[in-house]
Amino acid sequence: MQQPSPAALERGLNLYRQGRHAEARDAFDAMVAQFPQAGAPRAWRGLASCQLGDVEIGIADLRAGVALAPRDARLVAA
């Protein structure tokens, strides 16, 4: 299964950590579009969506991300 590059994921994470949640969600959204079976960008898109008040969508994305990558400790801890 293909995954986004570590650099692309890190860019999205940095935006999220800086509180730039809309930009982070856009970055993760682009990764999800390109790599629909990658769990991490979907889960982080969910967290960004929750921060933006889109809680139902965010929770659905978070659950889907964890389901796609159940052994990814970063997602379970998120």
Give an account of the 3D structure.
- The protein is an all-alpha fold and about 80 residues long.
- It is built from five helices and no strands.
- Helix 1 packs antiparallel against helix 2, helix 1 runs parallel beside helix 3 and helix 2 packs antiparallel against helix 3.
Spatial shape: globular
Q: Unreliable segments (pLDDT under 50, ≥5 consecutive)? A: none
Oligomer: single chain
Give a short account of the largest sheet: none
Write the topology of this structure.
Layout lengths: L5 H12 L3 H14 L4 H13 L3 H14 L4 H5 L1
Helix pairs in contact: 1-2, 1-3, 2-3, 3-4
Name the descriptors:
single chain, 78 residues, mainly alpha, 0% strand, globular
Summary of the model, kept short:
Helices cover 74% and strands 0% of the residues. It has 78 residues and is mainly alpha-helical.
